[in-house]
Design brief:
The chain is of the alpha+beta class and 182 residues long. It has a single domain (5-180), classed as Gcn5-related N-acetyltransferase (GNAT) (Aminopeptidase). Helices cover 27% and strands 33% of the residues. The protein has helices spanning 33-45, 56-72, 125-135, 152-160; strands at 17-18, 23-27, 74-77, 80-91, 94-105, 108-116, 142-148, 164-165, 174-180. It is globular, with a radius of gyration of 15 Å. The two termini are 26 Å apart. The model is unreliable at 1-7 (pLDDT under 50).
């Protein structure tokens, strides 16, 4: 297993990050779990995340991954137990978005999911979450993202910050992109 998550995520992770005068990004806690779960289900219905997540028998697995990530900064994925963390964005204490970052390899992290609530889109919150995700990992690391075809806005955002399409594409239903952090 890899070194503990605290060695790989910035030490300022638990500090609130005020993005502008109204958006705050912080590490998720247990009280944020329902919001995150509901965003994942809604995103799956729209084709942004794995469509299997809308099937009720998969709900317990997703809820466990969220709970484990929030509680212990790790969760089980198809690749085994990995370091992971959720961050949430809020405006006036109302949750408006989240991202989930996992550690795939010693120097490779993945934006596993990123979502902004529909009523809060087109306000720059997704871009702020993306920027925050890149700052949350050690300098010199690689951040990857795998996007479904419905995620055209996310694709545009990650191209803008410098992600490039990876030469090796593993799945037919997603596109893999990456960026090396400075």
């Amino acid at each position: 297993m890899f070194k503990s998550i605290k060695e790989f995520f910035s030490t300022k992770d638990n500090v609130l990050t005020e993005v502008d005068n109204s958006v705050v990004i912080k590490s998720a806690d247990f009280l944020d779990s329902d919001f995150i779960f509901n965003q994942i289900i809604e995103g799956s219905k729209s084709g942004h995340f794995n469509s299997a997540f809308v099937i009720p028998r998969y709900h317990l697995g997703i809820k466990k991954q969220i709970e484990d990530s929030v509680k212990s900064n790790s969760c089980e994925t198809v690749n085994g137990i990995v370091s992971s963390r959720f961050y949430v964005a809020s405006i006036n204490d109302d949750l408006v978005g989240f991202y989930w970052v996992i550690r795939n390899k010693p120097s490779e992290f993945e934006i596993y999911m990123l979502s902004v609530a529909p009523k809060n889109r087109k306000k720059g919150i997704g871009s702020e979450l993306l920027s925050h995700s890149l700052k949350s990992i050690p300098k010199g690391s690689t951040m990857v993202a795998r996007l479904y075809s419905a995620s055209t806005v996310m694709l545009t955002m990650i191209y803008k910050v410098g992600f490039k399409k990876s030469k090796k594409q593993n799945a037919k239903e997603t596109v893999k992109l990456s960026i090396k952090t400075c």
